[in-house]
Amino acid sequence: MSDVGTEEPGATGPPRPPLPPDGCPAGYWEFHARLYDRFVRFARYDLRSDELAEAAVDTTFAELMYRWPKVAARDNPTAHAWTVLKRRLVDQGRRRRRTALPVDDPTLWSLLDERAGAHDPFDALALRISVRNAVHRLPERQRDVITLYFLLDQPTSVVAEVLGINEATVRSHISRALPRLGRTLDLPGSRPDHRRACS
Question: In angstroms, rounded to a whole number, what is the distance separating the alpha carbons of residues 94 and 180?
Answer without folding.
Answer: 27
